[in-house]
Amino acid sequence: MAVVIVVGVQWGDEGKGKIVDLLTEKARLVVRWAGGANAGHTLVVDGKKYVTRLIPSGILRSGVTCVLGEGMVVDPAVLVEEIRTFRAQGFITQDRDLVVAERAHLTLPHHREIDRLREERPGSIGTTKRGIGPTYESKAARIGLRVGDLFRPERFRARLERHVTAIAPYLHELGGAAPNAAEIASSYLALAEEIRPFVGDASRTVHDAIKRGENVLFEGAQGVLLDLDHGTYPFVTSSSTTAGGACAGLGIGPTLIDHVLGIAKGYATRVGDGPFPTELSDATGELLRKRGNEFGSVTGRPRRCGWLDLPAVRLAVRLSGIEALALTKLDVMAGLDRVRLCVGYRLNGRTLDEMPLDADDLAAAEPVFEDLEGWPDAADGAVPPGAARFVARVASLVGIPVWATSWGPGRLQTVVEHNPFAG
Ligand code: IMP
Ligand code: MG
User: Which atom of ligand 1 is nearest to the CA of 239?
Assistant: First the structure.
């Protein structure tokens, strides 16, 4: 048995959903610990495409329990829609397929409204506008509502009343309408009925499964470089995306974790604002965007594309204690004559091997590139020698092994050298 944390080591969209889906073949629980409906994992199984928002990617495997942890923020309208969609497709056949933490915080309609209004103003950072930041703000201000409140209607209404009184002046300042507490109560309490069978103590569920010796997989959302504390503030999300966040988000002690794995794309993407030293604003960037279908799965925004940034990966590896890397979407890069790896930065006459985290320093940093020969499409699953050299070079420059490579969206187009749940 093993308890494994998987995190994205870039700015999200590393193809985590696909790798996690593969690992869930041997996992009993798949757990998310932070963020909310800002995440979007795209999975392709038997040629059919599935997108998850709040629910972890394990949902496509029968016998796997998916857990939405205490550190998450839950938009019940999105959750109910997801539950209905997966049910209609033959998944979530029993109550124990899904556990939603009763202590997770609720995203309310005006959290989305605040996010949207702020994004129209100077100082916007290009959020997903799903109300994530404002929900965490309410949580930290101790005026938030939680999933469990939905099942104590009197308390829900009383807390909502206090919440609305506290937040209305801010909404007014932004030019938004005052929240209508009665309307929110009636729509949220109605949605609650569809969530009720799944609500419980996620922390205890996960802890007990670990104690029983089950394989448990913690699935990171977003990417380590978007971490609230350790990312390029303020161009970050509002939660803890590092591996340590998994322990905090579920109330699980770090002594119970066995392995931490990282996932990187063979190139880099970023959605939203913030410095991105290896960004390609040319035809190659356009090609990667098109071939890699690099458009936000939540927002549809074109993702900014660039070369793989190893100083950024090294930082993420350090911040999360990552032992091995998966490299995804290597098929997207096939056909390029030359591929580039950013191996360091130049800043103020100095060479840096790790990405600086001050946003202004990062904007001023000059990437130092190493050029490698490209590779053609992988024929019959054989890894082209050029691609094998690229993978080996990444492992050597980051200083940890590459345990899996991915050559296309399907389950079978992945080469796993070492499955952490095997043996
Ligand atoms: P928020 O999480 O919606 O507040 O957005 C903050 C920043 O994180 C923005 O740059 C978003 O584009 C980025 N972001 C949030 N979630 C994801 C994700 O799942 N993938 C990639 N970027 C994300
Ligand atoms: Mg995504």
Answer: 2
Best residue among 41, 116, 271 to mutate for probing ligand 1, ranked by most atoms within 8 Å of CB:
271
Ligand nearest to the CA of 220: 1
Encode 218-230: b = buried (16+ Cβ within 10 Å), e = exposed.
Answer: bbbbbbbbbbbeb
Per the model's pLDDT, the better-predicted residue between 394 and 25 turns out to be 394
Residue 374 CA to ligand 2 centre (angstroms): 27
Question: pLDDT averaged over the chain?
Answer: 95
pLDDT of residue 383: 79
Ordered by where they begin, the domains of the chain are: 3-92+201-416 (3.40.440.10), 105-195 (1.10.300.10)
Question: Tokens 């990171």 map to which residue?
Answer: 220
pLDDT of residue 363 exceeding 90: yes
In this structure, the strands spanning 65-68 and 29-32 are parallel
- Cβ atoms 238, 132 nearer than 8 A: yes
- Minimum CA distance residue for ligand 1 atom 17: 222
Question: Among all ligands shown, which has an atom nearest to the Cα of 232?
Answer: 1
Å from CA of 40 to ligand 2 middle: 4
Q: Are 34 and 245 in contact (CB under 8 A)?
A: yes
- Closest CA to ligand 1's atom 9: 127
214-235, pLDDT tens digit by residue? 999 999 999 999 999 999 999 9
What amino acid positions are annotated as catalytic residues?
Answer: 13, 41
